[in-house]
Amino acid sequence: MSAPNKPNTATTARSSITNAMSVDVEDYFQVAAFEDHIPFSKWNNWPCRVEANTDRLLAIFDQYNIHATFFTLGWVAQRFPALIQRIVAGGHEVAGHSMNHVRIFRQTPKEFKEDIVTCKKIIEDISGQKVIGYRAPTYSINHETLWALDILFEAGYRYSSSIYPVYHDLYGMPDAPRFPYYPRQNIVPDKRGILEIPITTTLIGNRRIPCGGGGYFRLYPVALTRWAWNRVNSEGKPGVFYCHPWEFDPEQPRVPNLNWKTKIRHYLNLEQMEDRFKSMLVDYNWDRVDKVYKESL
Length: 297
Ligand SMILES: [Zn+2]
What we know:
By secondary structure, this protein is of the alpha/beta class. It has one domain: Glycoside hydrolase/deacetylase (TIM Barrel), CATH 3.20.20.370. It is 33% helix and 12% strand. The strands form three sheets. Strands 1, 2, 3, 9 and 10 form a five-stranded parallel sheet that branches. Zinc ion binds next to loops.
């Protein structure tokens, strides 16, 4: 077990760069990999654990005096408005993660617009905070759904953190830039458009290695994530880390009949997540996404 209260000074000097910390606020039964097992119509059959698990994360951030961005489903905000208020009271940023976690390529532009406008309004009304950030469900912005970035900008969002510039069977845009950029600035006349803040990767040769969190963080030894993260910061760039409240909940109900890949991705090393995560909180500087990139927004 790692020692979360002690910085890892043995292997690396602490970088002065402040990285972006983010949480995708959704419950364990809402992930895309479970959609064939638990469709939207069956969500109410599963016990909600997102409120308690997000509170657990809020307590961890409070303990380490770190502020983060919480990309939140409208579905969660409607059911647990007091949770949204606790997130804001903790000094964190609230941002959008769609209403019901439908991947963008399954929506028409009209449906997408309605979804992100509704999500923004619900979170703003509950939180009293302006929502300018968005993360697509399952990183579902790719070459076919770039139109979504213009709709987000028109709706008042100012940044998106929705592109994972890697190869993956469920998502990814492997030829997209690794660091923040304005994907529509040459397409929308006279407008810079929305800022895209991709999830963090490092390079081994020309190969991109995902190291921004989630399943990869639970799969890799912590030393590997730290090595990758040090490389990113040594490029003079902040990284973007993401996690989910359900990753801190080894006791969550098990979904039956999953294939081996889904089972490994979802359940691997959940019991180690909290200690691993705390060691990252100690060894690097963190802040909310909107604060880390404020000069570009
Ligand atoms: Zn999600």
